[in-house]
Design brief:
Elements lengths: L3 H10 L4 E3 L11 H17 L2 E3 L5 E3 L18 E5 L2 H12 L5 E6 L8 H9 L6 E6 L5 H12 L4 E5 L4 H11 L6 H11 L2 E2 L3
Parallel strand pairs: 1-2, 4-5, 4-6, 6-7, 7-8
Antiparallel strand pairs: 3-5
Helix pairs in contact: 1-2, 4-5
Amino acid sequence: RSLVSKLMGDCVAKKVKVAHIYTAGFRETAHKEWELAQAEFSRIAREGGVRLVGPNCMGIYCPDSGLTWARGFPKEPGTVAFVSQSGASASRLVPAAAARGVRFSKVVSYGNAVDLDCTDFLEYLARDGQTEIIAAYVEGVKEGRRFLEAVKACRNTKPVVLLKAGATQGGSRAAASHTAALAGSPAIWAAFYRPSGAIKVET
C-alpha cells in the first residue's frame, strides 16, 4: 500500500493511460492514514491524466484480448458482460457460469471505484458490439442520475440484470466495510428499477 503513490507518480511520468490497482487496505479500512493514502494516489493520477480501476479489485477479464486474472477462466469469448464491485463475486460467477455454457465478452471488478465505476463501464458496454447481455453487482453508486441514464441506455439494445448488494441495514454495513460504498436507502433502490428497465435479481 505504501508504494502506490510513488508508483502512480511513475505512471504519470511514463504517460500511462490506465492503471489497475489490485491492492486492498485503503478507504474501506476506515483508518485515516489509508484513507489519506487513497486520496493522495487518486490526486496524482487525476492530475497526471491516468484513469484508475480499483483499488481493492481483480481488474479486467477480456478473453478476446487474452486478459485474465485467473488461470481457469475460459479463453473463448462470449456475449455476456459482468460488471462487479466485488472481486470475489466476479471470481465465483465466471467459472459457475462457464460450467453452464455461458461465456463472457468482458468482466470488470472495480472495487473502491476511486475513478472509473459501474456507470463508466455500463456506458461503454451499451456501445460494445461484442456484448448482448449485461449483468452487474453493485454495492453503491456515486452519481445516481447518471447511473440511471446509463442503465436506460443499455436496455434500449440489451437487457441489464442487476443485483444490488446492501439492500438491508446489515447489507449496507457490509458494503461499507468491503469497498467503503454508500449503499443508499432501500426505498430509493426499490424506486430505481421500474424507470431503469433493469431486471432485478436477489442472489
